[in-house]
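A further point concerns the way the authors explain their paired sequence and structure data. The central task, working out the structure tokens from the amino acid sequence alone, is never made concrete. I therefore recommend that a typical entry be quoted early in the introduction. An entry of this sort, consisting of the sequence and the corresponding backbone structure tokens, reads as follows:
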Amino acid sequence: MKKTGRRARKTRGPGSTGSGSVVRIAMLVAGALVMLSTSFSHAGPTQNDVFKSIQDSVGERHEGSSMPVILLALCGALVLVLLVFMSRREQKKVAAPEALNHSGKLAREVVKEVNLKPNELRQLKTLADSIGEQVGETPDPLALLLCPSLLAKGVNANPSKMDKKVVAQVVRRLREG
């Protein structure tokens, strides 16, 4: 027998399986088993497990004190009561507005600013009274200072108590001022 450097190749028939294909099949089966086992292990809890867990957690008694919750609720109620009280207080102010200006105080301020003498203010009052007889409504003496047409009506009415020199001084002061 002669030995050659080459080994003779064995041919296998259609029914024969080689060691390489057996290993491949074994690897595929092992991989499939690993994948199936991991998919089953990641499956979520069943409905019964969820209900049992909820029932257990609802039925448990907690040892925590309910005092902070009560204090928080009382503080919230106190804040609400204060807000209601403050809003009612503001509504009362809006419902009945007070007179902001007093006509006497306003007259004194204007007299100081215009430098009217008491005699001149008295003359303006008599002129206002004389206009009131014509119009039916007595205007404020300060309105005569603001409205020259009213002052002219008062002068034209020619009341008997009017001092023309004093009224002329007032008119001059108004023109300068």
User: Anything to note?
Assistant: The CA atoms of residues 93 and 99 lie 12 Å apart.
